[in-house]
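User: For my dataset I need records formatted as: sequence, then structure tokens, nothing else. Please produce one.
Assistant:
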Amino acid sequence: MEYSLENSNGIIRRWMYGEKLEHFLQKDADSILGELGRHSLGSIESTQRNAWSDQIRIMKSVAFPESLASEARIYFELTVPRLGRRADVVLIIGHIMFILEFKAGESTFNRSALDQVWDYALDFKNFHDASHALNIIPVLIATEAPRQPVTICSSTHNDGLTQPTCVAPSQIGDIIHNGLAHFRAPLIDAEAWERGRYMPTPTIVEAARALYAGHAVEDISRSDAGAQNLQVTAKKVDTIIEHSRSERRKAICFVTGVPGAGKTLVGLDVATRHLNPNSETYSVFLSGNGPLVAVLREALTRDRVEQTRQLGNVIRKGDAKKEVETFIQNVHHFRDEYLNDAGAPPEHVVLFDEAQRAWTLSQTSSFMQQKKGKPDFNQSEPEFLISCLDRHHDWSVVICLVGSGQEINTGEAGISEWFDAILKRFQSWDVYLSSNLTEAEYRGGETFQRIIHRPNTYVDSNLHLATSMRSFRAETLSRFVREVLDLEVESAKATLSGLQERYPIVLTRNLSRAKQWLRQQARGSERYGIVVSSRAERLKPHAIDVRVKTDPVKWFLEGKEDTRSSYYLEDVATEFQVQGLELDWACVVWDGDLRFNGDQWAHNQFRGSRWTRINKVDRKRYLENAYRVLLTRARQGMVVVVPEGDGNDATRPHDYYDPTYNYLKSLGLKTL
């Protein structure tokens, strides 16, 4: 858990011990150790106490530059909230911020430890406003290591954050002196640095872990003016739930947002604050996105096991998984449960993620007849799901989290089916609408106009999330992708010119070159991988076969040494495996299924031994949305690969690929 305390100066103290370096050097080691112990949130094991003692002893032995010691600050156990961990020592001295991670008893420097200290430095560089412009040097110290060559290597990003440096304890002074000589910059105002705001933008997996561990949404989300909407929206949803409970009303609420804006985060926040089955506001988070559910469940299960172990206890992974499964459920399992159970669910609050992907009446009826043996089933999925909550005699709330342009599969209805169900059967329910549901991309259609004029319908702009949280380097990415797919050439050029500096998008025809670019860009444990359309069946010559199913849990959660992970750049993920999840850096490989032909897109699928044209409007939209999903997965940057055609292969002629490449290049994308 995070240690933080706001002092009289309004500074959020995120460290367990911190003061001026000269005072630290003068203070008795036992008193420093005692202060660390007093500010610990749990019992202290002897190994931790011994590690602190070694770190204090080592830092006291360092030959610091005397001219800088009086203004320098040192901090032990400084919390990195987004990562849910603490950096061993942070030193602000002169014009440099050093982050030091100690590995007690180790004589070598392993990859995971290097990534760990690099991640700490990246987190401050990216998300702590007072650290954005600082020169930061991450240092890994193996306490039993022999002396190392002390070199400082700047990264290819040229943002003042170096690659991690490995040293023996006796070389800490050397790296400090070398670091101070390596950079030229103004002295750091340590007090101003302490007052800096921490504005994290976690991945959905990181957010779920933090929320499930008890952190508030404010601790893990941006707090700048552009992102205030997230907390406002969460508060609005809370108000609707409380009003419905106190007034014994039934309500349905529609929350909209641009891709990556935090709709799922809002839902997880509400659900994690109402986990007690004995509470009147007991809630559940439902998603029809199987890969998202599987990845989040596995991540939370692993965390639960590890946190229990750190407290000196043991929990079986199966037991931890059962706890998590009550919190995050697959919407189809929930549906099937209440097909057979006519009673009301135990939850009064149900949150449906990606509600626009719920099935139409025809899709649901067909499924029920073929898979469930119910030939007379005549409800759409939204109608049936609302009816389950309508079984409560007193009150209930349905929260629909709605994305735009995210329908990617047959039978996914958009939001109109929800409106139809309300107008048809649930006229007494209160309806709270995001003001942005008027936009065509949400596909509310004519029913929106009918529902907005019914009694007890309320429209609120606070139910729309307008700022992307995923692409913290480029809030306009989703707009650029929409303009690219809508062929709004001049608008796309203008948007791209404003985001390229902070969010690199590069174009190439060479997959090997793209892989090399990904590896060069990613630092620490930043995740990267290859994503392709599920209809990209002619990438097999490039060793990409979409018919081989990737395990999204392994792809998103395993480490760099695992061949099944995204890092290995062998297995690829499609729109179905990545929707709702994200990477730091992505390689999007563009096949001949969606082709630019000079003035419009041509939509195709590969059947047997040849491409065939897609003519149905809905299926065209699904294909474009697949690329919309792929092109908005990366948080920090991406490389787009449009392969070369092959004149000797009738399924891959040059004119299936060249016009698409030339179109993207004409927008101003830089080429590798």
